[in-house]
Design goal:
The complex is a heterodimer of chains A (about 375) and B (about 260). Chain A has about 375 residues and is mainly alpha-helical. Chain A folds into two domains: about 5-300, ABC transporter involved in vitamin B12 uptake, BtuC; about 305-368. Chain A has helices at about 5-25, 30-55, 60-80, 85-105, 115-130, 135, 160-180, 185-195, 195-200, 205-230, 240-255, 260-275, 280-295, 300-365, and strands at about 150, 155. In chain A, helix 2 (about 30-55) packs across helix 11 and helix 3 (about 60-80) crosses helix 10. The longest helix of chain A has about 70 residues, at about 300-365. The relative contact order of chain A is 0.14. The radius of gyration of chain B is 19 Å and the shape is globular. By secondary structure, chain B is α/β, with parallel strands linked by helices. In chain B, the strands form two sheets. In chain B, strands 6-7-8-3-9-10 form a six-stranded mixed beta sheet, sandwiched between helices. Chain B has a four-stranded antiparallel beta sheet with strand order 2-1-4-5, covered by helices on one side. Chain B is about 40% helix and about 25% strand. The longest helix of chain B has 21 residues, at about 120-140. Chain B has a domain at about 5-80 and about 170-250: P-loop containing nucleotide triphosphate hydrolases (Rossmann fold). Classes of the chains: A mainly alpha (about 375), B alpha/beta (about 260).
């Protein structure tokens, strides 16, 4: 967090620019779908990095918040005919409200209770998505969800939906940077390092933990409602425990305390399985492997690794340049020294000759 | 001397079968420095913990100024002006010095989180103001030049000063110092003593400190409280305490038994 707010804003502008320019280069609708999924997963990962990386609270149930919002908006808009804009709002609200209910007791406890509580919560939701067939459609999924439309504007093409999602990802990242560069962000990092000291500074740690938990659940919910109306079909398999773990791996791979890192992690781990379609289920092993390797060799994730690499390159260039300069200086010095030595030698010889002349003259005078 | 700022009466703390404190009365006068001393295991840190609310006392009442804080949470006590430091440093090692001290200002600026979320004008103005204030406090303890460094990169003695700065930034009425000189060398302790006296003047503080370094205690405190096995065995001015046979016996062992 040593970089300033301006630096982060420039980074965000760069990200949006790249995401805006990418689709024409891809050309293929399948690639656009993958890219859209990348952005949705990045949205969840950013929220999770606030919670896990900055506040140090582990959630193993974020796929549940993602799914809860998706099913809420699906059921409201499809079954009850609520306008899509409203049902999406309700979906995000449902995730945030349930997060508050789950978090209120769990966050008051110390240690890994939140991880356990969210783990249980995720499993319960997964069962609900599967078993309440009348509402969710059960394991075969929920079909016929209306496409995205907001304020009477229908996002008919995939490209328009993509741009909407990019804009909302930008909003999520902007909000996250705002939090991190404020007293709230400092409070979160403080309670991560030392709950005692944070309390001694007057920080209501339970309140801040709840705040960041609800915010991260709302981000996951936002991704969930967009997902539902983008694909128009959802199934419980997308919101299971393994996806929760995958989300954590994205954050860890990217670098726990880095928002840009978690976005890169999300993109990487969304694209990767697409290349592994041929080998079934190999990605589970891969995710586990990535997690282990990260813990061992990249504790600060890709972001930290990138920083270290950058510093290494910088030092190599710098040291090289320095050495070159030093060498040149040395050579110059040696030349100078040689020259002055030569001059000295000549002078010495001349002096010696002078002295000899003088002595000869003196001797002559005495004798004469 | 005016009405005492902190009044704790009949404080009792029990950990399972161990009575850590019993019947302890502690008062700290306005602008006074009160030292709590005693042999190892006498319950000094437990007393600080009970006063700051980190340990819940089973017995006793706590009053700060006109507020009854007996049932208050630690962060609520801090907001009322009772701020502490820790024996084992608890600085925020992953932040810069400046951020550490700005975190100290946290409780004095109460605005709704959405101001931070949306980075409103209020939020930005506040950030700027507390940044200046934090720099002033860093200057006060002599760490101004290091403001942008990570706290974990500081040597131990400077980390102690940082913790003090962070506590001062909270603008406490009463500052609780838990062994502020532990791990410091002689010259650093000397500087610390001067700093504590200057802080009292500058911020108009009352101070309660737990300390092993007798030179420091005798030099700066107005009042000394001696604990032994969880009970008060003596209290009074430093010079008076030094001559108290009970205190000498507690520290050096009793000859007569």
């Amino acid at each position: 967090m040593s970089m300033g707010y301006r630096y982060d804003m420039r980074w965000l502008a760069g990200l949006l620019l790249v995401l805006a320019l990418l689709p024409p280069l891809l050309g293929n609708n399948y690639y656009l779908t993958v890219l859209t999924m990348c952005c949705l997963n990045a949205m969840i990962a950013v929220g999770l990095s606030l919670l896990v990386g900055h506040a140090g609270q582990i959630s193993l149930g974020h796929a549940g918040f993602y799914g809860l919002a998706a099913y809420t908006t699906a059921a409201l808009s499809t079954t009850l005919g609520v306008p899509v804009g409203l049902s999406m709002l309700a979906g995000v609200g449902a995730s945030a409200a349930v997060a508050a209910l789950v978090g209120l007791p769990a966050l008051k406890l110390k240690g890994h209770y939140l991880a356990m509580a969210t783990l249980g919560f995720g499993v319960i939701l997964s069962i609900l998505f599967n078993e309440t067939v009348e509402i969710t459609g059960g394991p075969s999924g929920f079909t016929g969800i209306p496409r995205l439309s907001l304020f009477g504007v229908e996002f008919s093409s995939d490209l328009s939906v993509y741009y909407l999602i990019v804009a909302l990802l930008g909003l999520v990242v902007w909000l996250s940077f705002n939090i991190l560069h404020s007293r709230v962000g400092r409070a979160l990092r403080a309670l991560h390092t030392s709950e005692k000291a944070a309390q001694a500074m007057g920080i209501d740690i339970a309140r801040y933990k709840l705040f960041v938990f609800v915010v991260s659940a709302a981000f996951a919910g936002l991704a969930g409602v967009l997902y539902a109306h983008y694909l128009t079909f959802i199934a419980p398999a997308s919101f299971g425990f393994s996806f929760s773990v995958q989300l954590i791996v994205m954050v860890v791979l990217g670098g726990m305390t880095s928002v840009p890192g978690s976005i890169v992690g999300a993109f990487f781990l969304t694209v990767l399985p697409e290349f592994l379609r041929a080998f079934e289920n190999v990605e589970i092993v891969l995710f586990g492997g990535i997690l282990v390797l990260c813990m061992m060799y990249l504790p600060d994730g890709l972001a930290g690794g990138f920083n270290r690499l950058w510093r290494l390159v910088w030092r190599l260039i710098y040291v090289r340049a320095d050495k070159y300069r030093q060498n040149r200086q040395d050579r110059q010095d040696r030349r100078d020294r040689q020259e002055s030595q030569d001059r000295q030698d000549v002078q010495d010889r001349l002096e010696m000759l002078d002295r000899q002349d003088n002595m000869d003259g003196k001797d002559g005078g005495d004798n004469g | 001397m005016a009405e005492p700022l902190l009044v704790c009466t009949d404080v009792g703390v029990r950990f399972g079968g161990l009575q850590a404190l019993s019947g302890v009365d502690l008062t700290a006068g306005t602008d006074e420095i009160t030292a709590v001393i005693g042999p190892n295991g006498a319950g000094k840190t437990t007393l600080i913990n009970a006063v700051s609310g980190m340990v819940q006392a089973q017995r006793g009442t706590f009053r700060l100024g006109t507020d009854d804080i007996t049932r208050a949470q630690p962060h609520e006590r801090s907001r009322l002006g009772l701020v502490r430091t820790f024996q084992n440093l608890e600085i925020f090692s992953n932040m810069t010095l400046l951020e550490n001290v700005m975190t100290g200002c946290h409780a004095r600026l109460r605005v709704a989180p959405w101001h931070s979320l949306l980075r409103t004008r209020t939020s930005r103005a506040m950030e700027k103001a507390i940044q200046n204030e934090a720099l002033e406090v860093l200057d006060f303890v002599g760490l101004f030049e290091l403001a942008k460094y990570q706290a974990r990169d500081l040597p131990f003695g400077k980390q102690r000063l940082l913790e003090l700065a962070r506590a001062l930034a909270a603008r406490p009425r009463l500052l609780l110092l838990d062994e502020p000189a532990a791990g410091l060398n002689m010259s650093e302790t000397q500087l610390l003593a001067d700093l504590i006296l200057r802080a009292r003047e500058h911020f108009r503080l009352s101070i309660v400190l737990v300390e092993h370094d007798m030179d420091l205690v005798m030099r700066i405190s107005d009042q000394v409280l001696v604990l032994c096995f969880g009970q008060v065995i003596s209290r009074g001015a430093p010079a008076q305490i030094q001559r108290d046979p009970q205190v000498i016996a507690a520290y050096l062992g009793d000859d007569e038994d």
